[in-house]
């Protein structure tokens, strides 16, 4: 029986990861690629030709001409790894996969991970996720993992200024945990005291403040950053609603079909 | 369908906690690996995903 619940979470997570990949390719990845044109300092001279770079293969997803070739390389599990400006010297994409395959793999892993975490919270707290309440569970997950941390650390484009990575990761993880605990107290615990404590838990990391960069100048245009922040939050909201609904469905079809 | 304190989770309370703990552990491991682990290869593979999900990156 235990395995069936884990399986349900995995199925829902993998399914959501696939849909998330489609949403990302449509709304988010073009902005990341565009921002990478400006990443890496002044010598790259964004200038006027920044928007019309049909010739450069690296940014070809923005041009209709290379779209077919790009699409063909997406379908191949092993393709040319696209270099990332200014990094990747010792890194590179696992197994020589194409950039898209790497993103798909990462989305599958992340989807399975968030699916298991959502199912884990539901099981440990004893509040079942069903088709009826799945979207609400998903929305709460989105609030805890994306919206509330984004108040302090908005989704960043490549090339954006940012504070020390380790500091930001610690703040981010603590904020996700405190926000999740706060949402649990607000939504699932009766009593005014629980709700007040929940609000305090959610507010605490925001009052403390996220680590901020000392110099906020960037080569990346502000409009791109604004579009990206909204696109990232919108696509993750889509991901979490799909995850909550499909987890509710999988719970009813897989977990209880013993 | 042993002891169940909720209408729709058909596990005993202890099995429910075990399943939940396993799910939380594996889930945290996967999300950490894809989103936060400080490895150049993992970072490059998951690069676009990390940015899209708003994980602290770079």
Automatic annotation (TrEMBL), chain A:
Pfam families to which the protein is assigned, alphabetical: CbtA (PF09490)
Keyword Metal-binding: no
Organism superkingdom: Bacteria
Transmembrane regions listed in the UniProt entry: 104-124, 131-149, 169-187, 192-208, 228-250
Keywords per UniProt: Membrane, Transmembrane, Transmembrane helix
Protein name (record): CbtA family protein
TrEMBL record, chain B:
UniProt-listed NCBIfam families: CbtB
Domain of life: Bacteria
Stated name of the protein: CbtB-domain containing protein
Database matches in InterPro entries: CbtB_put
């Amino acid at each position: 029986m235990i395995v069936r619940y884990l399986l349900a979470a995995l199925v829902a997570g993998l399914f959501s990861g696939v849909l998330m990949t489609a949403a990302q390719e449509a709304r988010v990845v073009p902005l990341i690629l565009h921002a990478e044109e400006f990443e890496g300092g002044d010598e790259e001279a964004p200038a006027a030709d920044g928007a019309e770079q049909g010739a450069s293969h690296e940014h070809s997803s923005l041009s209709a001409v290379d779209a077919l070739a790009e699409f063909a390389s997406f379908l191949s599990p092993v393709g040319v790894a696209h270099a990332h400006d200014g990094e990747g010297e010792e890194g590179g994409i696992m197994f020589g996969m194409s950039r898209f395959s790497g993103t798909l793999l990462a989305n599958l892993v992340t989807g399975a991970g968030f699916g298991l975490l959502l199912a884990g919270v539901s099981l440990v707290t004893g509040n079942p996720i069903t088709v009826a309440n799945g979207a609400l569970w998903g929305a709460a997950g989105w609030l805890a993992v994306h919206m509330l941390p984004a108040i302090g650390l908005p989704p960043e484009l490549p090339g954006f200024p940012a504070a020390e990575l380790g500091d930001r990761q610690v703040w981010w993880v603590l904020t996700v945990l405190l926000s999740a605990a706060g949402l649990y107290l607000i939504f699932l615990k009766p009593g005014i005291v629980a709700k007040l404590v929940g609000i305090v838990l959610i507010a605490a990391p925001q009052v403390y403040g996220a680590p901020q960069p000392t110099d906020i100048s960037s080569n990346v245009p502000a409009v791109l950053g604004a579009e990206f922040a909204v696109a990232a939050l919108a696509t993750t909201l889509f991901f979490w609603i799909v995850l909550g609904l499909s987890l509710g469905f999988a719970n009813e079809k897989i977990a209880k079909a013993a | 369908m042993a002891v169940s304190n909720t209408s729709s989770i058909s596990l005993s309370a202890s099995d429910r906690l075990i399943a939940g703990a396993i799910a939380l552990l594996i889930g945290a491991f996967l999300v950490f690996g894809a989103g936060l682990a400080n490895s150049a290869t993992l970072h490059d593979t998951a690069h676009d995903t990390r940015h899209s999900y708003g994980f602290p990156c770079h």
